Amino acid sequence: MAVEASSLSAIMAEEENLDPNTTNLIRFEKHLPVIRAIRGGEEGPSKEQKIACGGNGYVWKKSKPTTVIQRSHAFQRSWTFWFDNPSSKSYQATWGSSLRTLYTFATIEEFWSLYNNMHPPTKWVHGSDLYCFKREIEPKWEDPVCANGGKWTMMFPKATLESSWLNTLLALVGEQFEHGDEICGAVLNFRMRGDKICVWTKNAANEEAQLSIGKQWKELLGCNEIVGFIFHEDAKTLDRNAKPRYTV
């Protein structure tokens, strides 16, 4: 991670002295780094920014952001939230044409600022998709980085959807995966048939890396079900008939 051990110690010391009424802090857990030390962030996107980046009314809350910690702790890389507007899907000429970038963030504070200003997953509209991908990667099969990749998929009930999505995000941006360079990002799909979270990867043929990512993700979320990995190439040609090539 870009956040050094000395910074971690300093933040942990701060946590004991901060007023809990002005900052929303979450205790540390063994699988999550300093990101959990700071729950808050700078003021969220303005009304104009929300409208300009799309997804207004689906994505953003109207409530006032929480009080902030005026510090900045950089991630190892920048990440971008994307949104696929369900009202546009029936009119799009090609898949992905309704995708919109919401915001790119590079620090812990920016992440919490954005996350805290989004509606919780239980409030989202069926048919919508929320992505969090490395900044240089678009969440499309056609993206050169994604073209030869695939995805791990888990289904979730409403009761655990929000916590599972948040823990997945924290593991991604906190560089918790052993083969993190293989990861493109994650997507939260809201569907009538059941909500799901997918982790996209770069090189589907790298079985060792894919199995490692799948096992770590299951352990992180405490999943006891069998989870499958589908190659994007299979999904493109076979659609819903595509079968997992790897399982954990």
Automatic annotation (TrEMBL):
- Please provide the Gene Ontology terms (biological process) for this protein: regulation of translation; response to virus
Q: Do you know which SUPFAM superfamilies this protein is assigned to?
A: eIF4e-like
The protein's matches in InterPro entries, at most eight in alphabetical order, are given as: TIF_eIF4e-like (IPR023398), TIF_eIF_4E (IPR001040), TIF_eIF_4E_CS (IPR019770)
State a GO cellular component annotated for this protein.
eukaryotic translation initiation factor 4F complex
Q: What Gene3D superfamilies would the database entry show?
A: RNA Cap, Translation Initiation Factor Eif4e
Give the UniProt keywords, A-Z: Disulfide bond, Initiation factor, Protein biosynthesis, RNA-binding, Translation regulation
Give the molecular function GO annotations.
RNA 7-methylguanosine cap binding; translation initiation factor activity
Tell me the domain of life.
Eukaryota
Query: What is stated as this protein's family in its record?
Result: Belongs to the eukaryotic initiation factor 4E family.
Q: What is this protein called?
A: mRNA cap-binding protein
Q: Which organism is it from?
A: Raphanus sativus (Radish)
The organism's lineage is: Eukaryota, Viridiplantae, Streptophyta, Embryophyta, Tracheophyta
Gene assigned in the entry: LOC108851796
